[in-house]
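Anyone able to model this chain together with 6-O-phosphono-alpha-D-fructofuranose?
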Amino acid sequence: MSSTTRITLSRFLIEQQREGGNLPPQLRLLIEVVARACKAISHTVNKGELGGVLGSLGSENVQGEVQKKLDVISNDILLDANEWGGNLAALASEEMEAIHLIPHRYPKGEYLLVYDPIDGSSNIDVNLSVGTIFSVLAAPEDCSQRVVTEQDFLQPGHRQVAAGYAIYGPQTSLVLTFGRGVFGFTLDREVGSWVLTRRNIMIPPGNREFAVNMSNQRHWAPAVQHYIDDCMQGRDGPRGADFNMRWTGSMVADIERVLTRGGIFLYPWDAREPERPGKLRLMYEANPIGMIIEQAGGAASDGRGRILDIVPTGLHQRVSVVLGSADEVETALAYFADHAGSGEPAAP
Ligand code: P6P
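re: yes, here you go
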């Protein structure tokens, strides 16, 4: 790509602000700060053994999951980068049980940032792609006059004003949406700039590829068993086509593949913990990814309805997800509908 055509993230955001007229300066600056923090996280992840950043801390996060060193390091990078800028009224993270208020010494802003600092952290020690997922909401107007509470974050996903993820893989890339299309950037490490490499990403239809953790198959609701069974029967079965399966253990890596070549990603409810709707978290996994998928022409459901219409009841609540190319999600949801009247177990 010649240097004359290189559009950096900064230039892209300024042009979006100028042209679209609905990328407010505070939101533009917030995205710049988050993107800069993702560069710092990428640099730290890439150190691997040499940086002493691998392995676990021996502690558990609010999810009851083992915390990796990089979970905490990345969380702190995002906190330190964002709390002073005057763009945020508060932050929230997978790694922090409660919301994080902006210290009194800094001005409060108009937005709420909620994020998963390292998604897929179980893959860090085995050198597989991991990522950062973030979601931006508008803070209620009276937040400037009062203490922000968790309730202020509990907005349905269709109220997000921006969403994105960084993926730390063979390349470090950033995928962003403000509700007017999905854009991809690649980190130029020589210069330290995010460079626009994909405009208006659209999920290709018709790709016969599903991403699900097959080891949970015996625990799924019958609707999911039936859908995956039919895919597995290939061209001689009801779907009339052979399917491929991929599962990386990092949502951002699987979603990057779905955005790029299509297919479907599922993490459905299962009977291992029947009271739990699913494994993935609504506020900082399903909602931001769901916004990106919809903006790329896809669909994002919890198996019964649109993920972005779910009214959250808790910062760390979990949800079942079925998302990807609109055609394949529609086909999968037909299985859910077929089984819905049978009284079979499904997401509570
Ligand atoms: P499992 C990572 O912990 C994560 O939240 C997602 O990134 C990923 O898709 C999923 O969980 C993997 O879950 O049960 O297959 O390890």
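The mean pLDDT is 93.
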